[in-house]
Design a protein that fits this description.
elongated; mainly beta; 401 residues; 6 helices; 53% strand; 21-stranded mixed sheet
Length: 401
């Protein structure tokens, strides 16, 4: 749940696009001098329009600035803009037609990916053909000053900056390594591997201290805004985000968060804030799954397991709860407990919340528990409580006295 926050690091998928530029773009078959010739050959290689803004072929190296416009974007924007691209392709190599550099350095790179409201990628991606026969040798690629933007219809733009990465040959494939140092998202490590087709592989982002800031979390692609209306996180947590990409398939993602008592979670429907959140939270395939969860509430603890399915027209949250030593005097007043009751609650609940599009949440399920050390108006008593669903949330029912 707060886990999604890390998913913020969609940057990984975006990083893959940056590396594809290094992959294809570094195979510059500069058959004739001039920016127009290089632009034409790069455009053919990538299957996208490439505009060379500057080009300098030197004695020992060559440099350029380029952009790949996204002509379907409204307003107009660039799919990729590279302010500085440097290779070890020399003037002699350029003139002789030996146009396969062994190293490429990319600086100040900006990438924009656009998604429709359902999360389908609508930005054009490289789909060209190599410009020469035979096996392709990938140069070592260094990237610094990278920025990734993901613009999904109907939500704020997701932005992560401070991306640095390296792509180098590793056995029968290519290894990706690097870091992210973003003022908002914090520091992350990047790792991954590409094999065979350049669109076949994975990229993973990890951090020991992912920051949970709702203003940033709400920009995360793919996760509906309704998720954050019903689950609101704060604090920090170790996190990992993994993206997989294969030819002809949608981009796959999985976000895993393992909070260790340093994160909080507010559930507006239940009118409660859970602190010291622990457990494993996985976001993948349109759902949030919680296992071995434990949270602090009302001086006690609650074990939690369940899932939040958000890729259906009506989202559904299911939870199994095991409460231990909850101070009744510190539970939300909206739960309907009489002020005359005190003691520590121990019990279990199976809850289900349906969230239809555009409609109010529909709470279902129930629970029951025993009040240890129960008192009624200061007098010792034996008491059991039942948690029931009502319009707008959950309420406790007490036995008649």
């Amino acid at each position: 749940m707060k886990r999604s926050r890390v998913i913020a690091l969609w940057t990984v998928g975006v990083l893959a696009v940056l590396l594809l530029v290094g992959w294809f773009g570094m195979k510059m078959y500069m058959g004739g001098p001039g920016r127009a010739a290089v632009s034409a050959q790069l455009s053919e290689s990538l299957g996208l329009p490439v505009e060379i803004e500057t080009l300098d072929v030197g004695v020992g190296s060559s440099s350029a600035a380029l952009r790949i416009p996204d002509r379907s974007a409204d307003p107009p924007d660039d799919l990729i803009r590279v302010k500085s691209l440097t290779t070890d392709l020399s003037l002699a190599g350029f003139l002789s037609g030996k146009s396969a550099p062994t190293t490429v350095t990319l600086k100040d790179v900006d990438v924009l990916l656009r998604l429709d409201e359902k999360g389908k990628l609508i930005s054009p991606l490289p789909a060209g053909k190599p410009t020469s026969p035979g096996p392709t040798t990938l140069p070592a690629v260094q990237l610094s000053g990278g920025r990734v933007r993901i613009r999904q219809t109907g939500r704020p733009e997701f932005v992560v900056a401070g991306v640095s990465a390296e792509l180098k040959r590793d056995g029968d494939g290519y290894a990706i390594s690097g870091t992210i140092d973003d003022p908002g998202w914090g520091k992350w490590d990047i790792s991954g591997r590409l094999t065979g087709d350049p669109a076949d592989g994975h990229v993973e982002l990890t951090t020991p201290r992912g920051q949970l800031n709702m203003s940033l979390v709400r920009t995360i692609p793919y996760v509906p805004q309704a998720v954050w209306d019903n689950l609101q996180a704060s604090g920090e947590t170790p996190a990992a985000v993994r993206f997989t990409f294969k030819p002809g398939q949608d981009l796959g993602y999985a976000v895993e968060v393992n909070p260790a008592a340093a994160a909080n979670l507010t559930v507006p429907t239940a009118d409660v804030t859970l602190t010291k959140v622990e457990g494993k939270i996985l976001i993948a395939d349109g759902k949030v799954v919680v296992t071995n969860g434990k949270v602090a509430v009302a001086d006690g603890s609650v074990g939690v397991s369940g899932e939040y399915v958000f890729d259906k027209p009506t989202a559904v949250i299911t939870m199994k709860l095991a409460a231990d030593k909850l101070n009744l005097r510190k539970l939300p007043a909206s739960w309907g407990l009489p002020k005359e009751i005190e003691g520590k609650l121990k019990g279990n609940a199976d809850l289900e919340i349906h969230i239809p599009p555009g409609g109010p949440a529909d709470p279902r399920g129930s629970g029951s528990g025993v009040v240890e050390g129960a008192k009624w108006k200061g007098l010792d008593a034996e008491m059991t409580l039942r948690l029931v669903a009502q319009e707008g949330g959950y309420r406790f029912q007490t036995p008649p006295r």
